[in-house]
């Protein structure tokens, strides 16, 4: 099976598993404020607060156990949350809400890294659209099942949520069939001719002027390359092979790097010599950075490889925090934050503010309307971003969200279901557009820091969700809608700035 076909199958299996798994959670979350208004809002605040807090350490865990097992382990806590609705016991319900926040941090960190890893750069929008189409269709399917069980069969909460729990458990089982991606694989490219000759799977030195590619070799691949080339018996043979490779490159007319330097064939260091200063051409504000490979003498000063001490768990965690804080306080993140805040506000409005004003029997039906446009909009937005760019998709999302706000405000205190459904339809499309937009921007802004980029995005939008879940217990729905309407315009301006500052 070729690589592209395998990636397509993994995308479909990955998306389908999330569709089945989230049927139970979305149905339970939509009815949270109908259990008890104060307890429901508090439970959602607790859920998204723990989610936000544990996001800070989730990349460290994800890198150690891999994206697949982050998803598998995190999913178990979602099942605990759904089970708490079968027989509502307040202490267990609140404990499950807190635990699912921890599970969500692991699951969504693994989710973002896994989705971006299986998606080539030219297909990130399409694959994100496919994923969101399946994933958000669980809103439609789950609430459709809930509405049918409540309104047609008149079943009890215990029976309804037992059925939903069993369905979600099937999705949890499917998680085990995903490919297990190691951290060292993320961002890897196909082995090159030189790599194949040397019998290694690490990257080949790049001979074009695209410094983005040159900068992407991981510390692991560098370390493996150095160790393999320290073998004295193979040194002379490797030198001949590299010289032959250089001749092939010259015959193909590949220039650029040859004009800047030549391969350094010193013992233990076969990295390309190039200009000491490189810059990320996709980011004009980026600092020049020096790319160096340690020499044998430098390595000897640190001790031989067998004697080299591994970083302690505390040291790796500190390093993880440093990487996260660099993203949090980077200039480019300032443009991204308004979009992430908007995603968080949509969650709190759709899953708490609006359902709290409706009859319990109408909540699943309204969530079906939300799920319909999420389902259709996710696929359309993915194609739109790949073909026409993020700016046009952002314009469309802003217009639709504004229409939804106007419709809800004009509804007033009436129970006109047509206007209510129209509002949910508009918010569904806007949510799908902004979710798709967020993944595309993560890969654009943080191509070498996918774990940290995903965590940053989830930290902001879920932190905002936690804040507004708490505030909406006290604020009127009109104030909530007006706040969202104003922020919608700010998010539009932010996406506009990202498009013209960081897109190639």
Automatic annotation (TrEMBL):
The chain crosses the membrane at residues 12-33, 39-57, 69-86, 92-117, 129-153, 159-178, 334-354, 391-410, 416-442, 454-473, 479-498. Residues 185-308 are annotated as: Disordered. Keywords: Glycoprotein, Membrane, Transmembrane, Transmembrane helix. Coiled coil: none annotated. Residues 243-262, 289-308 have a biased composition (Basic and acidic residues). SUPFAM superfamilies: MFS general substrate transporter (SSF103473). InterPro entries: Ion_channel_UNC-93 (IPR010291), MFS_trans_sf (IPR036259), UNC-93-like_regulator (IPR051617). Gene3D superfamilies: MFS general substrate transporter like domains. It is a multi-pass membrane protein. Residues 266-281 have a biased composition (Polar residues). It is found in: Membrane. It comes from the Eukaryota. This is UNC93-like protein MFSD11. It comes from Anaeramoeba flamelloides. The lineage of its organism: Eukaryota, Metamonada, Anaeramoebidae, Anaeramoeba.
